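Reviewers of the previous submission asked for a worked example of the structure-prediction workflow described in the proposal, so we include one complete record here. The input consisted solely of the amino acid sequence. No template or homolog information was supplied to the procedure at any stage.
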Amino acid sequence: MSAAGDKASDAFAQRLNGALRRGLLAAARSRRIDAVARKHGMRLGAQRFVAGETFAECAEVLARLNASGLHANTTLLGEDVLSADEARAVVSEYEGILDGIAERELRVNVALKLTHLGLLLDEELAYENVRHLVDHAASLGNFIRIDMEHSGLVDQTLGIYRRLRAEGRDSVGIVLQAYLFRTPADLSALLPLQPNLRLVKGAYLEPAEVAYPRKADVDAAYARLIEATLAGGAYTAIATHDEQMIEQTISLTERMGVGRDRFEFQMLYGVRPRLQTQLAERGFKVLVATPFGPQWFPYLMRRLAERPANLLFVARNLVRR
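From that input alone, the workflow returned the following structure tokens.
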């Protein structure tokens, strides 16, 4: 094939991959598709990425991860609750999760979404709910990570995080997304707080006006963000499965003299488990994001959108039915 043919083929593949990703992310927010998919249960393929539908099931997975030298966080899957009562029920479930982690002496913290705690209903409701959980976690010697959601919620999410820190709560961290144009400015504003930051590339469908559409640009922004966060003194959780990016980060920390107690690598349950173990064996802290719960469909769609090749895994599970 000619050079021109190669370029045309690559361009077509990129367009196809982009269209597939947009379709998967749109499906992630469809309640109708969610309801249909959940009829098939975990057999659809979610068991590769989701550690069960109950905390009891998840706790067994978390214990195995700890036994293999890995740390973890866990998340009760869900978002966009529709009532204050539903949000309070989620708070109660998270209390039980934190208690269960303490009882089992697991090396596990909790990550959660503010829309799961009522942010779309009332910002004050979400604040009171997450404040209660941060205090409960702190009383148990644990930690809460507030996940970042789509770009329209960044200001509210960062505002709640800042409010918690201003009131003296340190057992809480936040997430920044490299694909958003605004993130370098957000990072600069957060660094004086000496925050605990998880850095991700971003998994929501965002307009080109607010986010880099090209993967190469996102990767470059992510590398810049890692360096700026480490240089700024923040505790840095680097969430990536990109082995080249991981090795570049290790070299960067060595050149900068950043100790291994200042950063960790984070990866998803079910994605590159061998790499997770290898890094832990090299003496790096590796945390495995290990979600659970019956509302697994949006999470599965976002994982497929990040790597559409995983669709083959799901298709095999459907055929086996």
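The longest strand covers residues 172-177. We consider this example representative of the routine output the project will generate in years two and three.
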